[in-house]
């Protein structure tokens, strides 16, 4: 886990922020679904780190690129990263 220590600490801070937002949010707010989904993703990433499985595709078992994991530590598969890369691409024309 030493390799991902910074990411682990960031995920723990993010978990605390999300838990605070859940407590502060209006119980009927539609944003609660998104907060809970993000919290689930963060919890899963933390559990994978603690089990020594972080950084592997859940589908193939292949290692995921460290650079993208640093940006999106909750990515679960190569497919997740491919979808995110599409959003990160710069347009050819501005």
In short:
The protein has about 90 residues and is an all-alpha fold. The chain has helices spanning about 5-25, 30-50, 65-70, 80-90.
Report on the architecture of this protein.
With 94 residues, this protein is an all-alpha fold. The chain has one domain (2-88): Four Helix Bundle (Hemerythrin (Met), subunit A). It is built from four helices and no strands. α1 packs antiparallel against α2 (31-51).
Number of domains: 1
Helix and strand run: HHHH
**How does the helix and strand content classify structurally?**
mainly alpha
What's the story with the biggest beta sheet? none
The total of helices stands at 4
State the CATH class.
Mainly Alpha
Report low-confidence residues grouped into runs of 5 or more.
Answer: none
User: Distance N terminus to C terminus?
Assistant: 41 Å
- The second-level CATH architecture is Up-down Bundle
> How would you describe the shape?
globular
What is the radius of gyration computed over CA atoms, rounded to a whole number of angstroms?
15 Å
- Our estimate of the beta-strand percent is under 5%
Task: Could you tell me the CATH topology label.
Answer: Four Helix Bundle (Hemerythrin (Met), subunit A)
Oligomer: single chain
Mean pLDDT: 88
The total beta strand count reads 0
